[in-house]
Inverse folding.
């Protein structure tokens, strides 16, 4: 069935370091890949997304890469700050369809 | 713009009872999706509504039902509550032009079943 695997489940970095979260999806028809940030007790917030016709997208300190052949996509956060601490979720979907979420990565940025 | 609003924010029910959760989508959005998020897990898709019809459904039993009104607001109903239904229920909206993309989530309704 449709599945998204996300690693690692927890990630601790020093302020200023980079953080990388990786996801693998099973449905080869997936063509939309968003990333959400969820702070404790808050709603998931879209931070970046990529469509299957693009291999990489960047927005300031955040970038996402997609390898359709390997069915992998990754989130890269550079120059991490304490306010980046949160749970990050990757997801995959076909056009207009349901999002299949990964299990989440708890990122902790230590000052 | 108030974004997606959900009510109630918290509620406690007992096994066997029924619950109705409500959602108003973000202004300009006409498609509403519902997700269940258990503690420490990623959200799981329940169903999606557009033009007052259920367009897509996830792997949830018939105890879970929904409705969308002409003003695009939506309700999620859960009958015969089980302990395992305890979770955060998230409503998300998006425009029909890109119905599953750019989902904007509400703050959720936290349901506890005792």
């Amino acid at each position: 069935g449709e599945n998204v695997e996300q690693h690692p489940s927890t990630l601790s970095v020093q302020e200023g370091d980079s953080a990388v979260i990786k996801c693998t999806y099973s449905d080869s028809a997936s063509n939309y890949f968003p990333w959400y940030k969820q702070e404790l007790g808050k709603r998931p917030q879209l931070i970046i997304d990529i469509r299957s016709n693009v291999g990489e997208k960047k927005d300031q300190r955040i970038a996402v890469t997609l390898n359709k052949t390997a069915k992998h996509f990754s989130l890269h956060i550079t120059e991490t700050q304490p306010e980046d601490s949160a749970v990050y979720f990757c997801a995959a979907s076909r056009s207009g369809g349901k999002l299949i979420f990964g299990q989440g990565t708890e990122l902790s940025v230590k000052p | 713009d108030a974004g997606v609003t959900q009510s109630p924010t918290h509620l406690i029910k007992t096994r066997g009872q029924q619950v109705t959760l409500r959602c108003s989508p973000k202004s300009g959005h006409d498609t509403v999706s519902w997700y269940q998020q258990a503690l420490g897990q990623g959200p799981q898709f329940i169903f999606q509504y557009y033009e007052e019809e259920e367009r897509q459904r996830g792997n949830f039993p018939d105890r879970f039902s929904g409705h969308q009104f002409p003003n695009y607001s939506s309700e999620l109903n859960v009958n015969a509550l089980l302990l395992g239904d305890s979770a955060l229920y998230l409503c998300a909206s998006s425009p029909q032009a890109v119905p599953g993309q750019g989902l904007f989530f509400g703050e959720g309704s936290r349901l506890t079943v005792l």
About this structure: The first strand of chain B starts at residue 5 and ends at 7. Chain B has a mean pLDDT of 93. DSSP finds no helices and eleven strands in chain B. The interface with chain A takes residues 4, 33, 35, 40-45, 48, 56, 58, 90, 98-108 of chain B (CB under 8 Å).
